[in-house]
UniProtKB/TrEMBL annotation:
Organism taxonomic ancestry: Bacteria, Bacillati, Actinomycetota, Actinomycetes, Pseudonocardiales
Protein name: Thioredoxin
Keyword Flavoprotein among record annotations: no
Gene (UniProt): trxA
SUPFAM superfamilies: Thioredoxin-like
PROSITE patterns in the cross-refs: THIOREDOXIN_1, THIOREDOXIN_2
Length: 107
């Protein structure tokens, strides 16, 4: 999973050729550690239709603030740079897929 920073977030999300799921996380966050392997698995399975990246909220403070991240983990889905869906908290793989599926169809 590519790690984005304050200096790379906006350009990367805006220029992506497919939807981007941004995993806002922190090292001190137990639910983040639970969802990380699920996201790594999905990143491989959905690579053709979805890019999954991560942002450490303690290192990318400006990005976390500009995206109004209030808790970790937060999973924001962007299409062409626009936020289209947001989820807060860890979820099992099947629940993540169910929430993401409507947003993965070509636009």
């Amino acid at each position: 999973m590519l790690a984005l920073t304050d200096s790379t977030f906006a350009a990367h999300v805006a220029s992506a050729d497919r939807p981007v799921l941004v995993y806002f996380w922190a090292t001190w966050c137990p639910p983040c550690r639970m969802v990380a392997p699920v996201l790594a698995s999905l990143a491989g399975e959905l690579a053709e239709v979805l890019e999954i990246v991560k942002v450490d909220v303690d290192e990318a403070v400006e990005t976390a603030r500009s995206q109004r991240i209030m808790g970790a983990p937060t999973l924001n889905l962007y299409r062409k740079g626009e936020l289209v869906h947001s989820m807060v908290g860890a979820r099992p793989k099947h629940a993540l897929l169910r929430e993401l599926e409507p947003h993965l169809a070509p636009s």
